[in-house]
Amino acid sequence: MHGNFYEKCSHCRYCPFIISQSSQSSQFYGSPQLTQMPYSYMMNTPNFHGHGFIPPTSSSPLPSSDILSSILERLNYVDKKLSQLDQIQQTVSGIVSRIVKIEQKMNYFETRIKELEKPCDFSGNMIENLTKKQSEFDSTLKSTCSLQNREDTAILKEHKIQAEITDLMCRSMRENLLFFPDTGGK
Question: Shortest CA distance to 9 belongs to which of 109, 18, 91, 135?
Fold first, then answer.
């Protein structure tokens, strides 16, 4: 394209810009008065040196204060929502950091519990061994008590038999004395 042409603003569709093709850097030029002038007026002024007449499109209205205020309202609304999202993000970040701390504490407690279970397992094995030895000791004690009772019974029988033997010996000696009286020196 040669020369100047008219282009709408990509931000709001309402601001007219004049782009110069002669400058290699594609700089925008225009004054605030040019951007506020209607398009048809700019095209028909003697100061506008275009290579052709671009007919005005269907009457595009200039931005009114109602449109600008609605845009501002929407921007304010978007800003509020963004600030709410920032607050939510901060809250979620705080919650995530707390969850990470809780997970670290839980991992610490799990390792401590495992460390405590190892000696408990050893103690449990020791207790099982002690319980077995205790039951063996109890059974040995019962058998020993049983043997002691038998021995006591046997001792009682022996004493009884010994008493009977002594009684029989004494009777036998007495009967011997009766049959053979002692004449005492005659």
Answer: 18
Task: Return the biggest CA–CA distance within the chain.
Answer: 198
76-102: pLDDT as tens digits: 999 999 999 999 999 999 999 999 999
Contacts of 38 (CB under 8 A, 6+ apart): 62
Place of tokens 């701390």: 101
Amino acid identity, position 173: M
- Strand ranges of the sheet holding 16-20, from the earlier edge strand across to the other edge: 4-8, 16-20, 28-29
User: Tell me: the pLDDT tens digits for 108-152?
Assistant: 999 999 888 888 777 778 888 889 999 999 999 999 999 999 999
Integer Cα distance of 20 and 18 in angstroms:
7
> How does 12-51 read in b/e, with b if 16+ C-beta sit within 10 Å?
eebebebeeeeeeeeeeebeeebeebebeebbeeeeeeee
* Domain spans in the chain, listed from the N-terminal domain onward: 4-63
Question: Which of 40, 22, 44, 19 lies closest to 30 in space, CA to CA?
Answer: 19
91: three-class secondary structure by DSSP: helix
Helix (H, G, I), strand (E, B) or coil at 6: strand
- Token pair listed for 93: 């970040």
40, 89 in Cβ contact below 8 A?
Answer: no
**In the structure, what pLDDT confidence band is assigned to residue 72 with cuts at 50, 70 and 90?**
very high
